[in-house]
Amino acid sequence: MSQALHILDQVSVVAFAAIALMAALGDWSRFIIPNRLSLAVVGVWAFHALLLVLQGQSPLIILWSILIALAVFLVGFGLFAARLLGGGDVKFLAAATLWAAPDYVIPFIVIVTVSGALLGLAFLIPGLGHSPQEIAPADGAPATDEAKSTVVTAGRLGRKMPYGLAIAVGCVAVSLHLLNGLWTGG
After folding, report:
1. Using N-to-C axis directions, what is the helix angle for 164-184 and 2-30, rounded to 10°?
2. CA 154, CA 81: separation in Å to the nearest integer?
3. Is residue 147 one of the residues assigned to a domain?
4. In total, how many domains does the chain have?
5. Residue 69 placed within a domain
6. pTM assigned to the model
7. Structure confidence at residue 181 (pLDDT)
8. CA quadruple 37, 29, 20, 164: dihedral positive or negative?
């Protein structure tokens, strides 16, 4: 019975990573992380949590995971209100945090933050991601080079970024951490 629980746990961890990659792909292509993917992360985590309890883990770890994820959601909501993160990013990040907490939550947040910073820097490279629209003057005359430069620069610094990619990097790191523990018995 223990071996079957172990295998089911491995499957749940791999499913989490797969869902995270689907969310990253959706965010990259459409700037949307569907709620169903965040709910799937929570649902698979609930199954994972049940398996942990059946294997002898303390239910307190589950409670701490939920509390930490709630704290991440509240901070994320503040970032959403400040227009620094999208709503889908906040929900997905909070759902993914369930998997990391409590023993791996700090590395998870650091990995997501560093990945997000690198993604932001990459989006400053011309031609990467979605390009801003050029705006012609109101009178219909072509935009001057100076006007084009201002619009492109402002657009690059203020454009959307698929932060789901950075969150997915953190999710894969958590999955590898969990699988390593499952494979080594730790």
Report:
1. 170
2. 21
3. no
4. 1
5. yes
6. 0.82
7. 80
8. negative
Joined together, the tokens standing for residue 108 give 């998870």
Asked whether the beta carbons of 9 and 51 are under 8 A apart, the reply is yes
DSSP H helices in 123-163: 145-158
Taking CA atoms, 93 is separated from 23, 32, 33, in Å, by 11, 13, 11
Rg (the chain; Cα; Å)? 20
Show the domain range for 45.
2-123+161-184
> How wide is the angle at C-alpha 136 spanned by C-alphas 131 and 137, nearest 5°?
145
pLDDT in tens, 74-133: 999 999 999 989 999 999 999 999 999 799 999 999 999 999 999 989 888 876 665 444
Model confidence at 160, pLDDT cuts 50, 70, 90, reads confident
**Residue 15 domain flag:** yes
| Helix segments in the chain, DSSP class H | 2-30, 35-54, 59-81, 87-100, 105-122, 145-158, 164-184
| pLDDT band at residue 1 using 50, 70 and 90 as cut-offs | confident
- Residue 105 lies inside a defined structural domain of this protein: yes
